[in-house]
Design a protein that fits this description.
Layout lengths: L1 H18 L5 H4 L4 E6 L2 E10 L1 H10 L3 E2 L5 H11 L10 E9 L2 E4 L27 E5 L5 E5 L8 E8 L23 E3 L1
Parallel strand pairs: 4-8
Antiparallel strand pairs: 1-2, 1-9, 2-8, 3-8, 4-5, 4-6, 6-7
Length: about 190
């Protein structure tokens, strides 16, 4: 009987520990925002239209990265969140953390963009070879397909999404590293 009790208690502790992992407290307290968890990552959807460099800086200040979409499952999750009733955004676009640098598209975390969801004709190039639009954004009217826009243009300001690794049980409210590998997904969605 004691062995059964110990096994049940161990399973409870393991399950409880996995479920207790969540977005860092300081992320869930950001005003005008919504958080959701997918694949070991906490996503912070910020309902504030800003220029791309400002969005990047805000994510960095919080200890996170701008949104990087590196597979179809993540793209589907982000689209579901952007279309959700809980989010209630009526914006036309959302910045991605992708930027065109040194003839390549890269995420703000330094990784090269490999998965893409560009709209037809995107990324655009002047005369077929010159790119003056160096930041990526998703457009609602194109079912959240990607478009390139000038990073520094005063005309373009959109909402943005930051990403963070999940807290492990017992973590302090300090800043987190930009990698969530090895952590469990609790599947919770938080509204703020």
């Amino acid at each position: 009987m004691e062995a059964v009790y110990t096994t049940v208690l161990s399973v409870f502790v393991i399950i409880h520990g996995a479920c207790a992992m969540s977005c860092p407290d300081f992320v869930t307290e950001v005003p005008h925002s919504y958080t959701a968890v997918h694949n070991h990552v906490c996503y912070l959807f910020v309902n504030n239209e800003v220029f791309w460099p400002t969005a990047r800086d805000k994510c960095f200040e919080l200890g996170g990265e701008m949104l990087s979409i590196e597979d179809q499952a993540t793209m589907d999750f982000i689209k579901d969140q952007l279309n959700s009733k809980e989010l209630r955004w009526d914006r036309k676009g959302v910045w991605l953390g992708a930027r065109y640098r040194n003839s390549n598209w890269e995420w703000t975390n330094g990784r090269r963009v490999s998965y893409t969801n560009w709209a037809s004709g995107e990324p655009s190039k002047l005369f077929g070879f010159l790119s003056v639009e160096d930041c990526a954004q998703m457009r609602k009217e194109d079912n959240w397909q990607w478009h390139d826009f000038p990073c520094g243009s005063l005309k373009f300001h959109y909402n943005y999404v930051c990403e963070f690794p999940l807290n492990k049980p017992g973590d302090s409210a300090g800043r987190v590293a930009p990698s969530a590998s090895g952590q469990e997904d609790n599947g919770n969605v938080y509204l703020k």
